[in-house]
Input
Amino acid sequence: MGVRTMYRRLKALQLENSVTMRALHILPTYSAYKKTYTLLRQSRQWSREELAAYQAQALSRLLDHAYENVPYYRRVFEERGLVPGDIQTPEDLALLPFLTREDLQKSLPDLKARNYPETAFEYVTTGGSTGIPVGFYYEKGASRAREWAFMKTQWDRVGYRFSDRCVVLRGYIVGSARDETFWKKTLFGRWLLMSSHHMTEETLPAYIDRIRTFRPGFIQAYPSMAVILARYMVEHGVEPFPTVKAVLCGSENLYPWQRSLLAEAFGCRVFSWYGNSEQTVLAGECEESTHYHIFPEYGIVELIGRDGRPVERPGAMGEVVATNLTNFVCPLIRYRTMDLAVLGKSPCTCGRNYPLLERVEGRLQEFIVTKDRRFISMTAVNMHSDVFDNVVQFQFYQKKEGEVLMRIVKKPGYTDRDTERILRELDRKFQGDVDVTIRSVGKIPRTRRGKYQFLIQDLPLDQQEPGQHEAECRNKSG
Ligand SMILES: [Zn+2]
Output
């Protein structure tokens, strides 16, 4: 079946099957998909200069439009005595202010472009599991189709085709304990959606059997979900699924320990990307590297260091501030994502002249704050260590600097010796600057969207200026 036919059928399916639509995050505008997908096939070969020219042109189109049609930006320009022509390159963007989540919350009506009919707007909100939940608008029928074109382009790099069977382990609740099926097929039988809420020691053997008979080419997952399955497989000596070519990980930060655990359990490539629902940045790994390749056609990404200036040295960290180049109904210019990332050294050996992120450290809320106010990234803590062998799940909770509560779900074999080992290991990681208390709990709840948080950060970290939270602890935390 061609992509065009698939889109038509999806359209028919859309009304009757909301689970499918949620799974696909798609609206059936084939032309928007096709146009973007075709562009991306060409632009991957462009030189640095060609990409820069493309971005400059897209930026000027966006700014002209925002000035003419978006009241919020007209005001921003006028207050600064600027006109769109003053901003010719991505570097000139520094003349404009950041757009924070608070701004978005306060000024959303003024961020709607006046030259689009009301039917063009699709209201979307972020999960709100961390930080402030915000609402904004997609262009109905186009934003999701374009997004899908970018995603497909990324998955092409590990050989994904529309005809491939795919197991989907994301935040879905499917099936029921009563009839002991925790999955359902969708997308003409090609995708097997598996429930994230029923995965336990008791049910996982059935999940594994079902995946084996389904013979998927790919597993699409929240890393935290895939890890539950992977851990079980490694601990019980379950062989990898021979048909699986890659695990496609998104929507949550993929920690190094998760990557190595997934690679071990599934015996295949673990492929990850980084993006947000606001659609301001999208970056994914390539055929040859695990660094995140930023799509210049998607948005302009600035990495802002703690001094408020752009980070230019590979290996240095800054906050991701991004400008979407394709959403004209609700332009987001210099949007503060609150995500911290480390600049990579480009170009990559794959030949794409895209800017690179070496790694994404995640949201501010994914850092633990020490007594001396250093920030320790959760990426520094290796939970795939045998120290945690007798722990089913864990979650850190912090509401005071230098103190964390670690909630754990114990395995039956857990003893005081495990507590001692965990505390010793964490003390080493935190350099003695964080007091850890361990508390045993029956269960660790997921967020409303079925995601799993390793850290609930209750300190007010949102109020900081971009980059101020840079983890100078890097060397110490190892
Ligand atoms: Zn590459």
Residues 286, 288-289, 293, 348, 350, 352 surround zinc ion (CB under 6 Å). Residues 303 and 320 are 5 Å apart (CA to CA). Confidence is low (pLDDT under 50) at residues 14-28, 465-478.
